[in-house]
Amino acid sequence: MRAFVGTFCVIIPLLMLSFQVTSQHPQSTSDEIPKFDEYPVGVWSGSPTPVIIQSPEERLYRTYLRNTAKRPPNFAGHYSFVDWGCGTNCLGGAVVDQQTGRVFQPPFPVSKDSHADEHWMIDGLFFFDKPYAQVRPDSRLMILTRQFNGKSGYYPEIFYLVWENERFRTVLHTIAGRQIPQKAKAERPKCL
């Protein structure tokens, strides 16, 4: 009887959460999911410009940033997305323009101001058994997968981001396969 009650206490909240997510947010269909081919860009093949290290925050990760010039661009034509671990389930990164050497913050930085390493940390919880950032040199689309810490566990949270005007714009956001409207983004709890 005790085992039945314990199982019942676990199953009911999961069913309630499933109903809540289903009723609040529509399921994303494969037609709605952005694809790399929808955001094409020509791939640059010139010689990379040395990375311009200007701030103390950039100096902290100068080796990662400078090493991007040793590889061809991997994102949006002439950019490189570089990333590094910053602790358990933590991810840091930057976007480097191979043509100009300029360095840009990653999507969802923990701090937009100059707060040392937080300037480069990507807000969220990452499990590294799956690809967390997908980019292609011939596309402006980045697919960023992190984990949403819900009441009943962790759910995959996926952002489809487009690089335009030297910044990221979210075109689709899903949690556990459910589309999250852009207005709800501000209400979403911070996931640290």
In short:
The chain is of the alpha+beta class. It contains three helices and eight strands. It has a five-stranded antiparallel sheet, with no helix packed on it. The protein has a three-stranded antiparallel sheet with strand order 1-2-3, with no helix packed on it.
Radius of gyration of CA atoms, rounded to a whole number: 19 Å
In this structure, how is the largest beta sheet organized? 5 strands, antiparallel
- Overall, the morphology is globular
- Helical segment tally? 3
Mean pLDDT: 79
Q: Numbering strands along the chain, what is their spatial order in the largest sheet?
A: 4-5-6-7-8
Strand content: 25-35%
For the terminal residues, how far apart are their CA atoms? Answer: 38 Å
Number of strands: 8
What percent of residues adopt helix (DSSP H or I)?
Answer: 10-25%
Structural class: alpha+beta
Identify low-pLDDT runs.
Answer: 4-25, 184-192
Order of secondary-structure elements? HHHEEEEEEEE
Number of domains: 1
